[in-house]
Amino acid sequence: MQNPFLPPPSKPLNEMTPEEQGEAGAKEIMNFISSCPGKAILAGGSGFVLGGVFGFFMASMSYDTPLGIGQMGGAAALAQEKYLELPLKEQMKIQFKDVWNRTKSSARNFGYIGLIFSGVECCIEGLRGKSDLYNGAAAGCITGGGLALKSGPEAVLVGCAGFAAFSTAIDMYMRSENGAPPKNDYDQ
Fold first, then answer.
1. Half-sphere exposure of 5 toward its Cβ, with a 13 Å CA cutoff?
2. Residue 174: which residues within 8 A CB-CB, separation 6 or more?
3. How many domains in the chain?
4. CB of 124 within 8 A of CB of 138?
5. Assembly and partners (predicted)?
6. 70 Ramachandran zone, left/alpha/beta (phi>0; psi -120 to 50)
7. What's the predicted TM-score (pTM) here?
8. Is residue 188 part of a domain?
9. Residues 60-100: pLDDT tens digits?
């Protein structure tokens, strides 16, 4: 089945040599990656992986030392006492389940942000017909505001401003001379 986002191949696949088939396949992959759905899927997938690594690291660090033991009050202290009375195997099960849940949550959140931001930025770039700082700022504003939508109008404004500022700062760095790769291997 032909991909609807790509132009048809110049000749049928069964009439191509293996080299031509490989080249046609590589062109299709590059065309998909360059499309808005492709960019959004790649950003979402990359965000999911990065968020999973970050979430795993942060969740596992919360179990590094028992500094908070005995310093809590009320129901939390009772829950902690019951937890400490459990056998080590049960404590480990609870910890691994907590780390897994926090890792999944972080991966989902990062993936969602990457998917939405990249898709919105690509659509804005396509509509405007140019690639500049305003695309990222607008996409950041829409993404940040959209993420905070359930929290009220003040949160939407803060989310919009925060994501737009962060996106603009990253874009400015990446477009600056310091962020650009060297012109050749000797320019360092």
1. 13
2. none
3. 2
4. yes
5. Component of the TIM22 complex.
6. left
7. 0.71
8. no
9. 887 654 544 545 555 666 677 777 788 888 888 888 888 89
